[in-house]
Write a structure and sequence with these properties.
By secondary structure, this protein is of the alpha/beta class. The protein is 31% helix and 19% strand. It has helices at 38-42, 52-58, 74-83, 87-90, 136-143, 157-164, 193-200, 259-262, 266-282, 299-307, 312-335, 355-360, 370-385, 403-408, 413-424, 436-440, 446-453, 485-488, 513-521; strands spanning 2-3, 7-11, 17-22, 26-32, 60-66, 96-98, 105-107, 116-117, 150-154, 170-175, 180-184, 291-297, 341-347, 366-367, 391-395, 398-401, 430-435, 463-467, 471-472, 492-496, 502-509. The strands form five sheets. The chain has a ten-stranded mixed β-sheet with strand order 8-11-10-9-12-4-13-20-5-21, sandwiched between helices. A four-stranded antiparallel β-sheet has the order 15-16-18-17. β9 (150-154), α6 and β10 (170-175) form a beta-alpha-beta unit. The chain is globular.
């Protein structure tokens, strides 16, 4: 048997060659931050023929693709896509979480062992240090004896780093303080020349401009009114309406204020620009070893958080993102080859609606008053135990108990848990409170399974609470982080080399992406992958 990386061949008994697998030159993984599946159907009539419509029309659309865990957020989402397994296994249980050992909050990619490359700030002190498993691109690096490259690009550090894995040639993200793409010494000691040239060109500055709708705003009939009480203003704006003439200079230094750029569609355009430069600079897709380009469009999340799922701002952002998808596809077709790349597109989570919007439309909802919740917790602990120190930390709707103090006071841990649960369950907006034992002793309940899949025994807390459907602490804009379908239902589109044309309506899971692409490539799935190949999507 002769084995190659782009063409794997075997011989039958007659000696003739039979093609086993013809691999793509490039795998492009696109994760759109905070994208509901319904945005595809909702904004369909405004999309071009060569963006989302091309992917769906010539690719494979999994219409009922979901996250199989609760606490949907950016860090766990990107990691789940990359690893093919749940947070309980890959270890990224939140964007941040309370660390039991240090008794401090831990950000998912912070790592003081490394330094920034590409700017003078500390925003590059990052690595995949907390990621416990291999990723799809890690397995491709191993399969090609590290000759296939991996490059990640995003606005958010966690989006790029956690998608790219442990063995990436580099992951890049945007330093909003200096307006440059940076990386970490975990990957390289200095920026490659092409990245330096991009930063030095100040291409970013072309996007420091007012934001108006791409099409006439009167045609955006799929969204609510432009001026409403469910949205937040940009700095210096009197109302959250188009055109957005936000302040683009730091009032103290007079320097450009790049952070607001990320909260506009222009942030996605910048990521597309840098991704194309990465392909050119790294010669991706130009040899006999499959490369990976992992792109995270983060600005959709910032826009969603600020303006909400039913806003004209979100609609315009996705209309413009569709054009960026078209630009990338045209570039791939011309420079990689129409049949030479495989692409998948998904999201890291969906989005809720603003409670005010739901309430005005007679859908049951309410605000979760977090300050009152904290006061209730403190009062409960004082009444039960005479001290609030029984809970030593909290994160991601979880409580971490002070086991040392509980032992010192001679209290029974299980009784402590039961007492806290009983007293917290009555608070308005709380659906239920679970002990770690209840979570781990999983039942057939669908929602308990989702909680279990996001619960890591070494990292997660002793107690976890869940909120009522459509309740949120957000007053304006959208958020996420629940087990409900508006947060778990995200797109999955497969396209290109090795992918069948078609669609399915059966429920698939985000963890199925990695093993499906691995099957296309003929490589091992990530080390702890628990997903299943979507067999309908790939060539026999």
């Amino acid at each position: 048997m002769v084995v190659g990386f782009l063409i794997r061949i075997n011989q039958d008994s007659s000696g003739s060659n039979i093609s086993i697998n013809q691999n793509p030159k490039l795998v492009v993984g696109i994760v759109v931050d905070q994208m509901r599946y319904q945005y595809l159907t909702k904004y369909w009539d405004h999309f071009s023929d060569n963006g989302f419509k091309k992917l769906i029309g010539k690719g494979f659309n999994a219409k009922s693709n979901h996250y199989g865990y609760a606490q949907t957020s950016t860090g766990p989402g990107h990691t789940t896509v990359a690893t093919g397994t749940y947070p309980r296994i890959h270890g990224i249980i939140g964007n941040s979480w309370f660390d039991k050992k240090s008794k401090k909050s831990v950000y998912c990619v912070d790592d003081d062992n490394y330094n920034t490359v590409g700017s003078s700030t500390s925003r590059g002190k990052k690595s995949p240090v907390n990621l416990l498993t291999s990723t799809l691109s890690d397995e491709n690096r191993i399969a090609t004896n590290f000759k296939g490259k991996t490059i990640g690009v995003a606005i958010k550090d966690r989006g790029s780093i956690l998608s790219s894995g442990h063995t990436a040639n580099a992951a890049y993200w945007f330093d909003s303080e200096e307006g440059s793409f940076i990386t970490s010494t975990f990957y390289v000691d200095e920026l490659p020349s092409w990245a330096k040239e991009f930063n030095d060109s100040r291409a970013v500055d072309q996007y420091l401009k007012p934001w108006d709708t791409y099409y006439d705003i009167s045609t955006y009939t799929e969204s609510g009114p432009d001026n409403n009480n469910y949205e937040s203003n940009f700095r210096g704006e009197e109302s959250p309406v188009f055109p957005h003439n936000f302040k683009i200079k730091n009032s103290k230094t007079g320097e450009p204020y790049y952070w607001e750029l990320a909260s506009t569609p222009y942030g996605n355009s910048l990521v597309a620009d840098f991704s194309i430069k990465a392909i050119e600079g790294e010669n991706l897709g130009k040899d006999n070893y499959t490369d990976f380009l992992l792109i995270d469009f983060s600005s959709t999340d910032y826009v969603g958080h600020q303006f909400g799922a039913n806003s004209k701002e979100v609609q315009d952002t996705f209309i413009r993102l569709d054009l960026e998808i078209e630009r990338l596809l045209n570039y791939f077709d011309k420079n990689i080859g129409k049949d030479e790349y495989t692409l998948f597109l998904t999201a890291d989570h969906g989005a809720t609606n603003a409670p005010g919007f739901l309430k005005d439309n007679k859908i049951p909802t309410n605000y979760f008053y977090y300050n009152q919740w904290e006061e209730h917790i403190e009062s409960t602990l004082k009444n039960l135990f005479g001290t609030t120190d029984i809970i030593v930390g909290s994160s991601n709707q979880q409580f971490f108990l002070n086991h040392e103090l509980i032992n010192k006071l001679g209290l029974d841990l299980n009784k402590v848990k039961s007492s806290i649960i009983k007293n917290l369950q009555s608070f308005p907006g709380i659906e239920d409170v679970y002990s770690s034992e209840q979570i781990l002793n999983i039942s057939d309940d669908h929602y308990i399974r989702l909680i279990r899949n996001g619960f890591n025994t070494k990292l997660s807390g002793d107690l976890m609470y869940t909120m009522m459907p459509n309740w949120t602490y957000y007053r304006k804009g959208s958020t996420h982080g629940t087990r409900f379908d508006h947060d778990t239902h995200v797109p999955l589109i497969l396209y290109g080399n090795g992918i069948n044309k078609g669609s399915i309506s059966r429920r698939t899971d985000v963890i199925d992406i990695a093993p499906t692409i691995a099957a296309v490539l003929g490589i091992s799935s990530p080390s702890s992958s628990t997903g299943k190949v979507i067999y309908e999507a790939i060539d026999d």
